[in-house]
Amino acid sequence: MPPRIALSLGDPAGVGPELCCRVCADPAVLAACEPVVVGNRALIERVAEQLKLPVPNQIDPPQSDTLVASTVTPGSIDPQCGAAALSAFAHAVAGCRSGRYAAVTTAPINKQAIAAAGCPHPGHTELLAEHCGGGEPVMLLYDPSIAVALVTVHQSLASVPASLSSAAIERVGRLLAAALGRIRNDSQPRIAVLGLNPHAGEGGLFGDEEARLVSPAVAALRAAGIEADGPLPPDTAFTARARSYYAGHVCLYHDQGLIPFKALAFADGVNVTLGLPVVRTSPDHGTAFDIAWKGIADPASMRAAVLLAAQLAS
C-alpha cells in the first residue's frame, strides 16, 4: 500500500490551500502516496470553488479548529489563521505519531500570524520538536542539484559563533550523510563541511573557529566512516564542480546555506526536518500573501516535498 501522507494546510490566508488542492490532484503524487489534507474543510472548499480546482478526496479536519472560513481574507495576517495553521499541524503530527500517517508535508505558515495566536516558536521545525517531546531538529534543504544542512538556524548572526560546537557540527554531518544515503541510495555520500570565516579562516588570520571547532568535527566524521572534507572556504564551496563532487554541505548558519540553495533551487527545493521521530517535509518558500487565492501559485516545490516525504516514509 502507498504511504498515507498528511498535508497540513498552512496559513489559510496564504497559498497553502491552493497548493494542497493542486498537489492532491497531481498524477505523480497519487501514484506515490495517499495524500490527506489536514485542515478546515469549509476553507478548503471555499478556495477550491473560487479557483475552480477539485476538492481533495480526503480531508481530515482537526476537532480543535475554530476557524470561520467565511471571514478569512486572503493575503492578510490574522490570528485565527495562525491558530488554524497550528491546529492543523498538531493534528497531522499526532497522526504521524499514532501511525495513522507515515509522514507530514507542511504548507507554509506565517510567523507573525502564529505569534499573534500565542505560539512561542518561530516555525514548524521548533514546533515539531515540541510535539515530539523535545529533541534537537536539524534543517536540511534538498534538491537533486544541491543539499544543505544547517548547524544553527533562526538566530542573529552575531550569536552564531558562541552557539557552535564540534559536537553539533559532527551531529549535523552524521544526520546529513544518513539522509543523503536514504534519498540517493548511496552508502557513502561525500559531504563538505564549511568554515565560518572568509577563506575558512586563512590559517587563523581571520579567526580560530575552523581549527578549534570545525576540524575536530570533520576528524570525528571521518573516524566514523563518513566521507567528509573541511573546513572549506564558503565562497567556493558551491561552484558547479564542488556541487558535482559533494552530495551535500554542512553549513554553519542560516544564510550560508540558504542563499546558494534558493539561488539554485528555489522552485523545486524541499525543506526536510532531520533528527526527530516524525518524517516532515515542506516547500522552501513562504505563504506568498501577494498571490494568495489567485490561482497562480506554483505547486512544484510542494509537489517535490510530498514526493520526498513518500520516498522517506517508504
The top-level CATH class of the largest domain is: Alpha Beta
Overall strand count: 11
Measure the end-to-end span: 10 Å
> What is the domain total for the residues?
2
Mean pLDDT: 95
Structure description:
The chain is an alpha/beta fold. It has twelve helices and eleven strands. It has two domains: 1-137 and 276-314, Isopropylmalate Dehydrogenase, CATH 3.40.718.10; 138-268, Isopropylmalate Dehydrogenase. The protein has an eleven-stranded mixed beta sheet, sandwiched between helices. A hairpin with a 2-residue loop joins strand 5 and strand 6.
List its traits:
314 residues; alpha/beta; Isopropylmalate Dehydrogenase; 2 domains; 11-stranded mixed sheet; 12 helices; elongated
Give a brief description.
The protein is an alpha/beta fold.
List the SSEs and their pairings.
Elements: E1 4-8, H1 16-23, H2 27-32, E2 34-38, H3 41-51, E3 59-60, H4 79-98, E4 103-106, H5 111-116, H6 124-131, E5 138-143, E6 146-150, H7 160-163, H8 166-184, E7 191-194, H9 209-223, E8 228-232, H10 240-245, E9 248-251, H11 254-265, E10 270-274, E11 280-283, H12 300-313
